Amino acid sequence: MEVGSVIHELGHIVGLHHEHSRKDRNKYIKVNFKNVRENAMLNFMMMEGVETLAEYDVGSIMHYGTYDFSRNSEPTIEVRDQALSFLAGNRRGLSYYDIKSLSKAYRCTVQCPYRLSCENGGFLHSLKGNTDCFCKCPDGLAGNTCNRIDPRAMSGPHGFCGGVISLSLSWFDRAFIHSPRFPFNYPRRQKCLWLLKGPTGSVIKLSFIYFDIKADSNKCIHWLEVRSNLVGQPGPRYCGRWNGGIIVSKDQHNNMMVVKFDSTEHVGYATTGFAAIASAIVTPDTF
C-alpha cells in the first residue's frame, strides 16, 4: 500500500471524513453514480450533519480521484473547475486545509494566551497543543499574521521579485506584473511570488498580454502557477506560448489570488516570460 493511502486511512482513524462526501460538495464536484462500482456506492454518499472545519479542498488527502472505483473506466467524479482536476486523488500527504481541519477538530489552539488575527488564508495553530501558538500561512506567505511574502519565495539572481499588491475597485487602480527583465529573457534560478488582494466581495482579474515560458514537448521546464481558488491550495502551472487569456479568482477566497513564477530548473535556455495586468472587479460578469 502506498504511503499516501496509509495516511488516508489514518485520516479516518483520527476522525476525518471523505472530502467528496461533504454536504457542500455539489458546488465543487459532480458524482457520477452510474459509473461507481456497486460495492463502493456508500463511499460516495453525501454525509449530512458532519461539521465542516475548513474550506472545500479537492486536493485533500481524503478526496477521491476522478476515476476511483469506476465500474466502466469512466469518471466517477468530475471537478467543476476543470483546472483543478489534477488535485483530486492526492496521496502525497496532508494538504494545508487537512491540517487546518485537524487543528480545529482537536482544538489545538484552546490554550493560546492571545488570539492572533491571521490574514490571507492563514489560521491559528499550535504544533504541541499548548501556548506556543502562531499563524500557519499558505505556501509562500510569512509574517506573524501571514501579511507578507516569504523571502524564500521570491529569490534569485534578479533579487527579490514579487510582493503584496492591494487593489481597489477603481478602474484606474491596476497592477502590471511580469517576469524579471521583461521584455527581455528572464534569468534562470529565479522565484517570484505576488499576492493580489481586492476589497471584500470583489474578485481578482488577471489579464495576460504576453506569455512565453520555457517548456518541452510534454512538461513545463519553467512555469507560472496561479492560485485562483484557494490561496493555500496548489494551482495549475502554465507554460509554453499563448496569446492573451484571462484568469479570474473564484469561490472561497475570491478576493485574493497568488501568482508564482519559477525558473529554478537549470535546463536549456530562458524565454521572454510573461506580462499581465491585475485588477479588482465586482463580479466576473463585468469584463
From TrEMBL:
User: Which cofactors?
Assistant: Zn(2+)
| Enzyme Commission number | 3.4.24.-
Ranges for the Peptidase M12A domain?
1-109
- Tell me the ranges covered by the CUB domain, including all copies: 161-281
- Give the record's keywords alphabetically: Disulfide bond, Hydrolase, Metal-binding, Metalloprotease, Protease, Zinc
Disulfide bond found in the keyword field: yes
Q: Which annotated residues bind Zn(2+)?
A: H8, H12, H18
Where along the chain is the active site annotated? E9
The record's remark on the cofactor is: Binds 1 zinc ion per subunit.
The record's Gene Ontology biological-process terms are: proteolysis
Instruction: Give the matching CDD domains.
Output: CUB
Q: What SUPFAM superfamilies does this protein map onto?
A: Metalloproteases ('zincins'), catalytic domain, Spermadhesin, CUB domain
Q: What InterPro entries would the database entry show?
A: CUB_dom, MetalloPept_cat_dom_sf, Peptidase_M12A, Sperma_CUB_dom_sf
Q: Pfam families from the entry?
A: Astacin, CUB
Protein name in UniProt? Metalloendopeptidase
Q: Which organism is it from?
A: Lingula anatina
The gene it comes from is LOC106158065
